[in-house]
Amino acid sequence: MSFEKSQVLFRRAAAVIPGGIYGHTTPAATVPGAMPYFAEHGHGCRYTDVDGRDYIDFLCGYGPLVLGYHHPEVEAAADAARARGACFNHPTPLMVELAEALVARIDFADWAVFAKNGSDLTTWAVMVAREVTGRSKILKVAGAYHGAHAWCTPGHGGLIPEDRAHVHDFPWNDTGALERLFVRHRGQVAALVLTPFHHPAYADSELPTPEFTAAANRLCREHGALLVLDDVRCGFRLGASGSHQRFGYEPDLSVYCKALANGHPISACVGRKEHQAAASRVFLTGSYWNDPAPMAAALATLKIVARDDLPARLERIGRRFVEGFLALGEKHGVPLQASGPFAMPYVRVADDASFMKTQALCAAAAREGVFLHPHHNGFLGAAHTEPDIDEALARIDRALPHLNHSFKDD
Amino acid sequence: MSARLHAALHLHAVFPALGVLAARDPAFADILAGPDTAVTLQAPGLVPARIARAGGQLRVTRQARPDDLRLLFPTCGQLVRACSHRFALALPVAGWTRLGSGRRLLETAGARLETVLTDRAAARSDADFARLHVPAALTVAVAGAAVWLRHHPDGPALHRRFGPRLATFTTLDPEFSIWIDLAPDAPAWGLGAPPRAADVAVRFADLPTVVAELAHDLDSLAALGLGTLRIDGHLPLAEQLGLVMQRVDRILQPACPRA
User: Fold this and answer.
1) ipTM for the complex?
2) Which of A343, B116, B176, B214 has the fewest CB atoms below 10 angstroms from its CB?
3) What is the DSSP letter of B12?
4) DSSP 8-class letter at B10
5) A161 at the B interface (CB within 8 A)?
6) Cα torsion through B71, B56, B140, B6, rounded to 10
C-alpha cells in the first residue's frame, strides 16, 4: 500500500515545520507509514487522503465532526455569517445568541464565554477557580488530557518544575486518593478538574463509578473548591445538554469544544451565577475569538443535536459498530475488547500490552479503507448510517484474516 | 545528583561500553595485544566493575577475581573524580604487582572510549567513526537508564510506573541491538536478542538518525513520519526511556573514564 503523496508532502513538511506534523495529528501517534498523513477532502463520514484513498472515518477529526464533513445546515449557517464579514472590531449578535442558547440548554449554566480550543478554556477555568477561591491547588486525574498548556500538557519539552508545583494527580475512580489530596491540601484546593469519563491515550477508557462521581461532588462542596468538568471531548455526544447529567456530576464550570460546531473552531465555558463576577476579572481574549462564522455553526449544530436526539442516535449506531466489530474478532480468532461509551468507543486487541497487535489491526483496517486509531478512543457521528457501519464492518472482515497471519509471524 | 549515582553510571554504564567498542574498533588492536590483565574498580555500596583483557579480547563484568588488580575508591566521589580527570585517591587493595599494566590498560582504553563517546562532530561527519560511536554511546545510554532507575531518588517510582516492560533499540547501520528489561526486582540490559518479546521496539534506519538521537538533537516526530526512526509498540515507554537517557547524558557529559 503506497502513501507516496503523503510521504512526499511529509518530506517537504519536515524541512520547514518542526515535527513535520505536530501535536495530536502527528503520524507518530498512529502507525507511521501504514496510515495516511494528509487529508484532501471529506463528505459525511468519509474522507479522502492526498493519495486518493477513501476512508470510513471513526475518528471524526479527533471528535469535532459530530455531524460529518460538510453538513449542509451547519455550512449554510457558517457561510451566511462569513458572507457578512469576519473578525470585526466588535462581536456580532451571534455571540449573545450562542451564550443564550447554551444557558438555556445546560441546566446549571448562567453564563458562557468563548474561545477557539479546549486548552484555551480549561486553562481559563482553572484561573477562574483560583480567582473565586483565592487558592492555588488544582487536583486532576493522572493521565487525563486537559490541553496543551504548561499546567497540563502531556508533552515534556519547555516545562519547569514550577509549572506543576500546584497540580496534584490521583488515579481515576480512586475516591480514597482524592479524599486524601483534599485533606492534605485542606484550604488550598481551588479546583478539581475532571473529564466525564477517563479516556487516556494508550489505555482503555473507564467510566466513573457512582461512588466516585458522588465523592467528587461532595468533596468540592465540603472543601469549597470548584468542580471543573472538561467536557471538551464528550460534550453533546453523550447528552444534548452536556455530559454531566449522564454521570451525575454537579459542575461549577464546564468546558465544551469538539462537538460544539461540527469542525468550526470554537470552544465554550459555562458557569454559575455566583462565579460570574470572578470570571469577569480573569482576562480572556484572542484575536479571532469573536469571529462570527464558528458561532453561527455552533448555533446550527446545537439545534441539530437536540432536534435529532443525537446522543441516542450515536449510542445506537455505536453499539452496532462495536458489537459487530467484537463479533468479527471472535469469527477470526482475534480477541478484541471494547471500552468507553458506544458513542466514543475504544476497541483494541485484548492481551496486547505493547499495542503492537492493535497497531497491526489499525494498519490492516486502513488498507481496507477504515480509519481507526490504535491508541485513542474513536468517535461515531450522525453521518454514520447503518449501511456505513455495515460497510465498515465488511471491510474489517476482510482485514482481520491478514492480521491473524501477522500475529502468527510474531 | 548524588556521587553514588554518578559513580554507578561510570561503573555500570560507561565501562561496559569499553567491551562493546573494543570488539569493533581497529584502534583497540594495540591495546588488546597487551598481556592478560584484569582491573576491578570498587566504590562503597556499589557492585564492582571488572575490566579484563584476556586472549585478545576485552570484557567488562561485575565479579572481582582474587588475582585482579583491585582499586578501591574510598568514596563514590573519588571514583567520579578519577573518571573526570581530577586527582583522586584509589587504594590498590589487591594485585598491586599488576598496577602498571592495569593502569596502562585503563588509561589507553579509557582515552579511546572518551574520544569515541564525546566527539559528536566526528560522528556527524565521518561515517566510519559514527559506526563506532553509535554502539558505544547507545550502550552507555541504555545501561545508564538501568542504573538511573535503580539509583536516582526518582528512579524506583518511575520504574514502577513503567511496569515490567521490555524495550529494544536496534540500529541497521551499524547492525547493533540492545535491550532493557524493566524487571520488577531490578532493571537489566543486554546485547543482542532480548530474553522475551519487546513491549516497544525502537529501530534506527540510518546513521544520521541515530547519531542525532544520541546527541538529543533529533526531530523524532519528523523521523518517525519519514520512517528513519520506527517505534513499534508502546510509544510512551520509549519516550520516557528517552528522557531518562537524556538525564544520564547530562550527568556524564563531558567527562569519561580515565583512571
Assistant:
1) 0.91
2) B176
3) I
4) I
5) no
6) 0
pTM to 2 decimals? Answer: 0.93
CB A347 within 8 Å of CB A59: no
Q: What is the mean pLDDT of residues B42-70?
A: 93
Same domain, A204 and A321: no
- How many residues does the structure list for chain B? 259
pLDDT digits (tens, 9 = 90+) for A55-101: 999 999 999 999 999 999 999 999 999 999 999 999 999 999 999 99
Residues of chain B contacting residue A18, judged by C-beta atoms under 8 Å apart: 219, 221-222
Give pLDDT tens digits for B90-101: 998 889 888 888
* DSSP-derived secondary structure letter, A240: B
Look up residue A391 and give its three cell numbers: 460497510
pLDDT tens digits for range B124-160: 999 999 999 999 999 999 999 999 999 999 999 999 9
Cβ B231 vs Cβ B201: under 8 Å: yes
* Cβ atoms < 10 Å from Cβ of A218: 14
Range of the domain at A271: 72-307
The C-alpha atoms of residue A278 and residue A267 are separated, in whole angstroms, by 20
> How many distinct structural domains can be found in chain A?
2
Using an 8 Å CB-CB cutoff, list chain B residues near A14: 219, 222, 225-226
Does residue A279 sit in the same domain as residue A250? yes
Residue with cell 485513542: A376
Decide the pairing of beta strands B37-42 and B69-72: parallel
Q: What is the pLDDT of residues A344-402, one digit of tens each?
A: 999 999 999 999 999 999 999 999 999 999 999 999 999 999 999 999 999 999 999 98
Domain boundary among A307, A331, A346: A307
Q: How far apart are the first and last CA of chain B?
A: 22
Nearest to A340 by CA among A90, A63, A17, A23: A63
Q: Chain A neighbours among B 173-232 (CB < 8 Å)?
A: 197-201, 219-222, 224-227, 230-232
Which residue intervals of A17-117 are DSSP H helices?
72-84, 93-105
